[in-house]
């Protein structure tokens, strides 16, 4: 028997999630049964999309249930194995985060070949957020020569990878983020034009100043005023990869939609929502490219790391307060 | 010398165009010069997109100039020719409507082989509006088997063709229009579910009732509440062909954008604006299909015809009051 603590959904948030929407509980784990492994998580991933699973509504992933532990990406170490495919010491990836340890069928976890990267990189740059950037920019937005690229939430886990892939492919990149620390990070990773949206009264004007000829690609993570500004700045045949709209996830009233969406007609803009899990066929090429780019020093990453399972709800709230730079993680191991 | 009257833009409309934004002027036409023809227009086309050209702003077509005659699609008859390529009696198509007659280089008009159709059909079902429907539905929305199709302004020149092409290809079609006469027309052309939006307090609810499993394609002519309802009703991977948003062309304040645009992410909706003139490569297949469908009786059309050049401004205003069914034309000849 070993003890694990886990984070459960205590109540569904209304608007901005609050600490009291979560509770920490202890569970006893028996030894793993036949075909099972016991894993102690090293890091758990904290992602904005999880907010959607806290609503009780149909979506592309089922809602979290009250009283049940939350789920999220995690990397961990096998501590006991009752299955020949895995052994103690193996590093594995799973969707069984938000808990310190768990027993699961061996098939529910994936053994991780870290290629010399720290295992938590597979929750960020080399994992779902990195692949989201890759798919959204290259496939959905269909990046092509000469494109000027605008990225919102550009200092986030996804946005910062979008910026760097566009840069290493030779594009002009405009990144928006809030505050000095994030904008400094964007300059560090080579973003050509950095917009501090918190210090910018008029995003449309700010975009027009740095991209007087307009933008061809918009990587949408934020929604609201960012989307309106992108529509205003778009050149004919611009492509918008709609990855997320974090400004609206906690809305209690219907948010204000883009008043200028009519521009999409005359400018022939394509706006397309996407979810990375529809594009797992691209995983091999993503892993090939990303490991090469990391190896050559063209791709860098940042993590914001909080420690211990008790910190997980707070780490989640940071996403919506814009308090993370790069990948938001909780270190458990 | 012959006399022609023409419609000129007297002032730029603010909000809904008014009769006083237009003036009728008489001009004297000399005999056609070398290489020129003189054409007497039979019908001129009245189209919503012209409203955009009345603003002084850059767009995919240049703005109309104050004091200059308006331009629009027209079919006419050559009354005198000074070019070997055309002779008196030839029926020609041009962008030189909004006038009774004109002289122009022979190359500025296209001789029309009407294939037994009335010439004004080439301003509607067999012309730009028909091809807009064809391109938008088949190419932009990429109609595929099993799709449920929702069409706004479904009784209009474009919408009514979208509905019928979708029907003849075996799809379930939902059409929205305002008033008894239009909804009767939609039933006549085989639309499965007809929504009278003027009599419907909640479009989202109305759509959910007729399409409980949702829609796969939305052909957007209206904007505003229609777009919001379509986003609510959309199934995963729905495609929206953004053809126009007539509810917003006369807005004097920024219109209210779709508050639920965030749904495009999770549902992976593709929304794409288009302009038919980018797709003229499809003209031969359009003409082949449309003449076959007309010949087999699968494609019907309606016209709303006002008479005489003096009626042209009023005919244009009817578009925004929803007073036309099918193609709005002015008969000049």
Write down how many β-strands of chain A occur, each being a DSSP E stretch of 2 or more residues.
15
The protein's oligomeric status is homodimer
Number of domains of chain A: 2
Q: Which structural class should the secondary elements of chain A be placed in?
A: alpha/beta
Main CATH class of the largest domain in chain A: Alpha Beta
Q: Report the portion of residues of chain A in β strands.
A: 25-35%
Estimated radius of gyration of chain A: 20 Å
Which architecture of the largest domain in chain A would the CATH scheme give at its second level? Answer: Alpha-Beta Complex
Write the CATH homologous superfamily of the largest domain in chain A: Medium-chain alcohol dehydrogenases, catalytic domain
Number of helices of chain A: 9
User: Sheet bearing the most strands of chain A, described?
Assistant: 7 strands, mixed
Secondary structure layout plus pairing:
The structure is a homodimer of 333-residue chains.
Chain A lengths: L1 E8 L12 E8 L6 E10 L4 H4 L20 E8 L9 E4 L6 E5 L4 E2 L16 H13 L7 E4 L7 H10 L3 E6 L2 H9 L4 E4 L6 H8 L4 E6 L4 H9 E9 L20 H4 L3 E4 L9 H13 L7 E5 L4 H10 L5 E5 L2
Parallel strand pairs in A: 8-9, 8-11, 9-10, 11-12, 12-13, 14-15
Antiparallel strand pairs in A: 1-2, 3-4, 3-6, 3-15, 4-5, 5-7
Helix pairs in contact in A: 2-3, 2-8, 5-6
